[in-house]
Design goal:
It is built from 19 helices and 16 strands. It is α/β, with parallel strands linked by helices.
């Protein structure tokens, strides 16, 4: 596929790749991009108390885990612009008459089926902080279903045969039973909100608070998190996923995170200093071009952050900035990520009709970058983490499960590196 769709790339790197291993440990993967960009931990001189003669930091409140607006924008969460741009979208308003504390948590999970226009929600469950499922219903999509994806969704034509509840009914009910100040909890919740065509600005995402990537492409699966931190098996039924079970798992994970603190469940990078800090200490300048949340959070000192909301914008910015005489340039391309996330098998990936165009775009972009580089520049292209396409079966003893997870992580940590010095 690469040789057919990326002729410039194969000509630039005739000797092929160097196989490398991403940072991480036996049970964790840290994308290399996240590791080198990782900022130094903040040191706090206050907000601590003494216990048994030891100084301990006060744990942050639950609202500190709510996603920031820039992060939501960078990770394609619905925004206020979506309301005006997309027909049929609604804003979560909640019910001001429902009494609740300042930041009440409600976990939400949806199951989707495929239609001609993409994924449509067909079931939803909402779980409160006491782990009670306060709402669970099937939903009849307005568009005919072409694939029920029963192995994952648990939905069949027979189940939906007599369902009359619409998406509008569900959103209306949510606005009636949930308080205005509700905080939504979920795993990669941007997908659920898109399926619900619902905008809300108070979200806690378990794929974020248990991920050290901070903008990298790797996100831990909910099933993995449940096994690792809750010692619970979920999504293990032959009849598909249960949104109530998934929502309850998200709620348990968030409550555990708040109880244990922000460092709990985060992958150690092994880096005491970020690359931007290292460059500054060496009196070197750097330019980092990435999604806004990544560029802005991980650059400091002499390293300049240049946010880009698309690959095209980032490419133009990089080529313009190559004349600035900085010693180091970082540019992250995301062209393949939507395709990767939309596929459940390697066969789906290879046969995706968008793959050829994406590879062609990357090939042409890399050729443009190389052509713009000054002489004696080391050009490095890195592939990121490997994919793992098989659905793991968490059976057997704890030791057997740990060994299986270690084998999966070892595969995912593999990456490819291409090097070339421009003469």
């Amino acid at each position: 596929t690469m040789s057919m769709n990326m002729p410039n790339f194969t000509a630039l790197f005739p000797n092929g790749p160097i196989e490398i291993q991403n940072p991480g440990s036996e049970l964790y993967v840290t994308p290399a991009g996240s590791a080198v960009l990782e900022k130094e931990p903040k040191k706090r001189s206050n907000d601590s108390h003494s216990k048994n003669g030891k100084e301990e930091q006060a744990l942050p409140p639950v609202q500190d885990y709510i996603l920031l607006p820039d992060y939501m924008l960078a990770h394609e969460y619905p925004s206020q612009d979506t309301l005006s741009r997309e027909p049929g979208w609604r804003r979560f308003t909640g019910n001001i008459m429902v009494k609740a504390k300042e930041y009440p948590l409600y976990a939400i999970d949806c199951e989707m089926c495929k239609t001609a226009e993409g994924s449509e929600v067909t079931q939803i469950a909402i779980v409160d902080e006491c782990l009670n499922c306060i709402y669970k219903t099937y939903i009849k999509p307005a568009i005919p279903i072409i694939d029920y994806v029963t192995a994952y969704s648990g939905i069949t034509a027979e189940i939906l045969k007599d369902v009359t509840t619409t998406l509008a009914d569900v959103v209306k009910h949510m606005n009636n039973i949930l308080p205005t100040q509700a905080v939504f909890v979920g795993h990669s919740l941007e997908n659920d909100l898109k399926a619900l065509k619902l905008y809300h600005d108070k979200v806690i995402d378990t794929a974020t608070i248990f991920s050290s990537g901070k903008g990298g492409s790797f996100k831990p699966g909910l099933r993995f998190l449940a096994m690792k931190f809750l010692r619970a098996k979920i999504q293990d039924s032959a009849s598909g996923h249960d949104p109530g079970e998934d929502a309850m798992t998200c709620m348990r994970l968030v409550k555990l995170k708040v109880k244990r603190g922000p460092k709990f469940g985060m992958t150690p990078t092994g880096n005491e200093n970020s690359l931007s800090v290292y460059l500054t200490k060496q009196s070197k300048t750097g330019v980092f071009i990435d999604k806004p949340i990544v560029a802005q959070q991980h650059c400091r000192g002499l390293a300049q952050a240049l946010p880009a909301t698309s690959d095209a914008e980032g490419l133009d910015t990089l080529i313009r900035r190559l004349s600035s005489k900085s010693e180091f340039y970082w540019f992250h391309m995301y062209k393949l990520e939507p395709i990767y996330r939309a596929c459940s098998t390697i066969h789906d990936m290879i046969n995706n009709p968008q793959l050829a165009d994406a590879l062609k775009y990357i090939d042409e972009s890399i050729q443009k970058i190389y052509a713009a580089l000054p002489a004696d520049t080391l050009f490095v292209v890195y592939s990121g983490c490997s994919g793992y396409w098989k659905k793991p079966e968490f059976n057997g003893s704890d030791e057997a499960i740990k060994k299986m997870m270690a084998n999966i992580v070892a595969q995912v940590r593999r990456g490819l590196l291409f090097l070339k010095v421009k003469n």
